């Protein structure tokens, strides 16, 4: 296994070359602060977008204040997840990350419903969380990825993502299948 710092450095280099990756503190940019207010209003103050969540718009990853003090293992897991969203934007935009962000953003926020049955959001986050699982397997091992299941599934079924997908059995099956597939790909035991 490669050390997390090496994995992180490779990911940063690759994402910067492919997507022009920019990592920025949410508190430093007006658009992140504006989104923070909107998310707070939509969730009646229950989601702390500015301090708890990492977010991607186009090639920019907005990070909370704790980013600078996080260990490379955590940074790698987060960035692998967020870079997956950049890949999704690029694919949806027929190679153009900007067009893809607009198309994916509409689907992410509204299709088929903005709350409770947000299939596009769930599919996009399944892709992101599959990469979180991959990072856990690469950095900590298979047991850690298996143990993360309740926390990751909770993101789908809670206010964190506006209750995007309430079908816990479906999510449990998806999670188990994803862990099994990635464990094989990564040669984990």
Describe the structure.
The chain has 189 residues and is mainly alpha-helical. It has a domain at 4-15 and 71-186. It has helices at residues 4-19, 30-42, 49-52, 72-92, 97-110, 119-139, 142-147, 149-157, 168-186, and strands at residues 22-25, 55-57, 60-63. The protein has a 3-stranded mixed beta sheet, covered by helices on one side. The longest helix has 21 residues, at 72-92.
Would you kindly provide a brief summary of this structure?
The protein is mostly helical.
Supply the key terms.
189 residues; mainly alpha; 3-stranded mixed sheet; globular
Write the layout of secondary structure elements.
Layout: H1 4-19, E1 22-25, H2 30-42, H3 49-52, E2 55-57, E3 60-63, H4 72-92, H5 97-110, H6 119-139, H7 142-147, H8 149-157, H9 168-186
Parallel strand pairs: 1-3
Antiparallel strand pairs: 2-3
Helix pairs in contact: 1-4, 4-5, 4-6, 5-6, 6-9, 8-9
What's the average pLDDT?
94
CA(first)-CA(last) distance = 13 Å
Low-confidence stretches: none
Total number of strands: 3
Describe the strand arrangement of the main beta sheet, using strand numbers: 1-3-2
Radius of gyration from CA coordinates: 16 Å
Fraction of residues in H or I helices? 55-70%
Number of helices, where a helix is a run of at least 4 consecutive DSSP H or I residues: 9
Which overall shape is indicated by the principal axes computed on the Cα atoms? globular
């Amino acid at each position: 296994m490669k050390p997390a710092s090496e994995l992180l450095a490779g990911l940063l280099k690759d994402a910067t070359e492919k997507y022009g990756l920019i990592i920025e503190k949410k508190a430093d940019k007006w658009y992140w602060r504006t989104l923070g207010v909107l998310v707070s209003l939509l969730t009646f103050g229950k989601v702390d977008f500015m301090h708890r969540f990492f977010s991607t718009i186009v090639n920019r990853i907005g990070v909370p204040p704790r980013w600078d003090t996080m260990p490379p293992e955590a940074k790698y897991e987060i960035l692998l997840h967020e870079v997956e969203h950049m890949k999704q934007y690029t694919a949806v935009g027929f190679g153009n990350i900007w067009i893809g962000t607009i198309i994916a953003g509409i689907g992410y926020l509204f299709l088929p419903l903005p709350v409770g049955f947000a299939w596009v959001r769930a599919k996009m986050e399944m892709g992101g969380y599959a990469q979180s699982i991959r990072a856990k397997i690469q950095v900590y091992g298979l047991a850690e990825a298996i143990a993360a299941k309740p926390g990751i599934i909770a993101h789908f079924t809670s206010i964190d993502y506006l209750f995007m997908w309430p079908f816990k059995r479906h999510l449990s099956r998806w999670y188990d299948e994803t862990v099994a597939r990635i464990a094989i790909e990564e040669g984990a035991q």
